[in-house]
UniProtKB/TrEMBL annotation:
The keyword Disulfide bond does not apply. Keywords: 4Fe-4S, Iron, Iron-sulfur, Metal-binding, Molybdenum, Oxidoreductase. Gene3D superfamilies: 3.40.50.740, Dimethylsulfoxide Reductase, domain 2. Residues 624-650 are annotated as: Disordered. Belongs to the prokaryotic molybdopterin-containing oxidoreductase family. Its cofactor is [4Fe-4S] cluster; Mo-bis(molybdopterin guanine dinucleotide). This is FdhF/YdeP family oxidoreductase.
Length: 771
């Protein structure tokens, strides 16, 4: 263990529950760091996730209709403080620094400069961002876009912008002439959006908040609730108090999945009382989940075979299976035929452990399965998600109270962006309706995913990138190669709140357009505006800004999209960009005309205390799949990395990239990860002592990690300190985005193209110690 700049030891285990005093201390610290520990800061936190307040800018977990006084969590409070900060990255700041110089700054330092205040354009002579008038910026961007082939332009969205802005964004792209609408979802739950329609006929999960009151067993696969969706800890805690079992599969023992103290409960805060979250905690190998779930299914099917033989009550829900599913026989055969030896090898778990989880599953009356990036960011992520559905089908655990599948989404409106038409898949967009409403012929060809957009920049076919939020080049795989290619990009336009590395890596023309954040009051011609969002359970909510804008030179995202659109497109009497920006309820009217089933009466319903749900056929046991039934998907293998060379069977190192509680994606609030006991640095590799010894290394030593692949391209990240940590054999954890240069662009889910950030084969070599 070594001392670090923060004065703490690099590795101090975190013995406390999540929630509790630790959370309160962290929240206070960040309010101080951002100079907003004031009446304004406190008022903002109290308005978070209230029906008359704003939807949190952190995660997309469901909002309760009966909120606590302080309906925020540590992560949400940090995200709010980060947005309402009193720090400014203004024209004076950019006058002092060339972009080349800023490239040497860390993610934390760059965003730590504060909110952007003025529109900027890169000036080649001085290598600086210089102020430009809004009208001039729009005119120049419009002129540049008009010269380009629309198919060579990418319109990315990062998952935070409202339904209103997102609707305008997809319409702009289509009026311009492309479906190149990748979303952060392409790096995240795209796996879900591809897997679930095949299995259950809807692209989203089937549970709602009230289901937590009816469930008696929850499975967690690869989702870190304590850090990434902490508001869910409250319903989980309630469920635990009722005796609900919670079974977790995660290669890391995450404190937030182990125990919780509720800051809303004075008794818990003053006594050492805390709720145990997981009643069983299993640490499979990364990528081993399909094998785990096959083990559970095999146990269930064997128990049912025995019951049938002995004349006992059946274990399978025969009625559900017969009435509602397709493909059960093939799946049962495969489960019976899969040897425990294969399951144990691929999962890294013992048969006994899997059978223990299966025993609880078989007893439970209503089961929820929650999952996150630990399942989706794999070469076989779609298979992982479909295995969860298979398991649920066996006992009819879908489409009834307290049971179902729940992908826990990331960005606060990422699911909504897809619902409102931001998609590169034309078959998912309401093209005929758009054609009818706006009198134009929308493009019908497939657009680019995130991975394909990067490929396009690498091969030169993509000429322009427009980003509605996000930190694209930092979030994507293969950072070094992508950044190198990005430097030849003819046009880049970034709509953002804070500076980040993606704004610095550019080609000929680069514009940085600062927007209002969601927490800020958005004043337009008809008065103060509100926006709407869809949460992870498919429920829509309204959101109103609460604080004065960071600068009076900012425009709303909707106004910026309209500004670009008007400067780029020929006038269309059916598209009233100015009228829409003047009154967002008119955008919602258009959303309701385009998608009546989802947004009917949205202007009223978005203010219901519980919000309002979009229809979900699978919840009602209606199956919009190809077979017309809930469809079992029988896997043909269980490997995590079917095409990666095994250099050393059983000892091959698989790197999985993780998030700390001190970050929101590429936004790094602090260098500490207190839950995992990592302080003052993010350049670490968490490895178990057996592997450290096997590789002839020592705790604290600095290594270079290199990707093992057969594409002939060298990829490595140096300066990584080895830290002894409880992870399964052969699994090594490192932080995202620092480790992204190690992920080959082609290393993605084979169907959904979600980058496989959770299992990257690597090798290690010791780095020479500097003299
Ligand atoms: N505070 C905070 N909140 C966030 C974010 C953030 O960065 N910070 N990001 C937001 C976004 S965009 C998203 S998508 C979500 C992400 O939230 P999560 O879905 O929780 O994603 P991760 O933190 O990347 O990984 C989740 C867990 O998967 C485990 N894991 C890794 N590989 C495997 C595997 O092969 N199998 C299993 N079973 N587990 C595995 C890791 O140990 C980790 O605990 O959170 C959102 N909320
Ligand atoms: N190795 C690895 N890579 C990953 C992942 C992983 O687990 N491992 N996770 C993936 C996942 S799940 C995701 S979702 C992506 C995230 O990818 P992105 O969504 O592209 O990245 P973020 O870091 O969320 O974007 C942060 C930036 O968004 C801007 N921003 C913040 N708020 C606003 C706003 O209100 N409006 C606008 N216009 N801009 C705003 C700020 O300028 C900030 O710097 O990364 C993916 N990459
Ligand atoms: Mo995400």
């Amino acid at each position: 263990m070594s001392a670090t700049t923060s004065g703490k030891k690099m590795s101090d285990p975190y013995p406390h529950p999540s929630g509790g005093w630790g959370s309160i201390r962290e929240v206070t610290e960040i309010l101080v760091q951002e100079n907003v520990l004031s009446a304004k800061g406190i008022k903002v936190l109290l308005k978070q996730n209230k029906s008359d307040g704003f939807a949190c800018v952190s995660c997309s977990w469901a909002k309760s209709g009966k909120p606590h006084v302080a309906e925020f969590c540590e992560s949400g409070a940090k995200a709010s403080a980060w947005e309402i900060t009193s720090k400014r990255a203004d024209a004076a700041f950019f006058a002092q620094h060339t972009l080349t110089e800023l490239e040497s700054w860390s993610d934390h330092e760059l965003e730590g400069t504060g909110r952007l205040t003025e529109p900027m354009k890169w000036d080649a002579a001085s290598d600086r961002y210089l102020p430009i008038a809004w009208t001039q910026a729009f005119a120049e961007i419009g002129a540049a876009l008009r010269k380009l082939d629309p198919k060579s332009v990418v319109c990315y969205a990062s998952g935070r912008a409202s339904l209103e802005t997102s609707y305008m964004w997809q319409l702009f792209a289509r009026l311009y002439g492309n479906n190149n609408l990748p979303d952060s979802s392409n790096m995240c739950h795209e796996t879900t959006s591809v897997a679930l329609p095949q299995s259950i006929g809807v692209p989203i999960g089937t549970i709602r908040l009230e289901d937590f009151e009816h469930t008696d067993c929850i499975f967690f696969f690869g989702q870190n609730v304590g850090t990434n969706s902490p508001r869910m800890l409250h319903p989980l805690q309630e469920a635990r108090k009722r005796g609900c079992e919670i079974i977790t599969f995660n290669p890391i023992r995450e404190p937030g999945l182990i125990s919780f103290a509720n800051p809303q409960s004075p008794l818990e805060m003053l006594t050492p009382k805390q709720t145990t979250i997981s009643t069983q905690y299993h640490q499979p190998r990364v990528g081993g989940d399909s094998a785990v779930v096959m083990g559970i299914c095999k146990t269930v099917i064997a128990a049912d075979d025995a019951a049938l033989r002995d004349g006992d009550a059946r274990i399978l829900d025969i009625e559900f299976i017969e009435q509602h599913t397709h493909g059960v026989e093939a799946f049962k055969q495969a489960a019976r035929a899969t040897a425990w030896e294969v399951i144990e090898r691929e999962s890294g778990l013992k048969r006994e452990a899997i059978e223990r989880a299966a025993a609880v599953y078989m007893k439970a009356k209503a089961v929820i399965v929650l999952y996150g990036m630990g399942l989706t960011q794999h070469r076989k992520g779609v298979r992982n998600v479909q295995m969860l559905c298979n398991m649920l089908f066996l006992r009819g655990n879908i489409g009834r109270p307290g049971a179902g599948v729940s992908p826990v989404r990331g960005h606060s409106n990422v699911q909504g962006q897809r619902t409102v038409g931001i998609t590169e898949k034309p078959e998912l967009a309401p093209l005929d309706k758009l054609a009818e409403l706006f009198h134009f012929e929308p493009p019908r060809d497939k657009g680019l995913t995130t991975v394909e957009a990067c490929e396009g920049v690498l091969d030169g076919s993509v000429k322009a990138f427009l980003g509605l939020g996000g930190n694209f080049t930092r979030a994507v795989p293969d950072t070094d190669r992508v950044e190198a290619a990005w430097r030849s990009l003819p046009l880049m336009v970034q709509i953002a709140t804070k500076p980040n590395r993606s704004h610095l890596i550019h080609g000929e023309l680069a514009y940085l357009l600062p927007c209002l954040g969601r927490i800020e009051i958005d004043r337009q011609a008809s008065g103060e505006q509100a926006v709407s969002m869809e949460d992870s359970t498919g429920v829509m909510h309204g959101s109103r800004g609460q604080v004065e804008p960071a600068a009076d030179t900012l425009l709303s995202e909707a106004a910026i999209v309209a500004g670009i659109a008007k400067a780029t497109l020929d006038p269309n009497p059916h598209v009233d960009w100015d009228g829409w920006v003047g009154n967002y309820s008119r955008i919602r009217d258009m959303m309701a005309l385009t998608f009546p089933e989802n947004y009917k009466d949205i202007n009223t319903r978005m203010w219901f205390p519980d919000g309002f749900p979009r229809p979900n056929a699978a919840r009602e046991r209606k199956w919009k799949t190809k077979t017309g039934k809930a469809t079992f998907a029988t896997p043909d293998s269980f490997e995590a990395n079917p095409d990666m060379p095994e250099t050393e069977p059983g000892r091959n190192l698989q790197l999985f990239t993780i998030r700390s509680d001190g970050q929101f994606n590429t936004t790094v609030y602090t260098m500490d990860d207190r839950f995992r006991g990592v302080y003052g640095t993010r350049k670490v590799l968490l490895m178990n002592p057996r592997d450290i010894a096997h590789w002839g290394l020592n705790d604290g030593e600095v290594v270079k990690a290199s990707t093992i692949s057969h594409d002939g391209i060298a990829r490595s990240v140096g300066g990584l300190k080895i830290m002894s940590f409880d992870v399964p054999d052969g699994c090594v954890a490192g932080y995202y985005p620092e480790c992204n240069p190690l992920i080959p662009l082609w290393h993605h889910d084979d169907q959904a193209k979600t980058p496989a950030s959770k299992s990257i084969p690597i090798s290690l070599e010791r780095e020479p110690v500097a003299a």
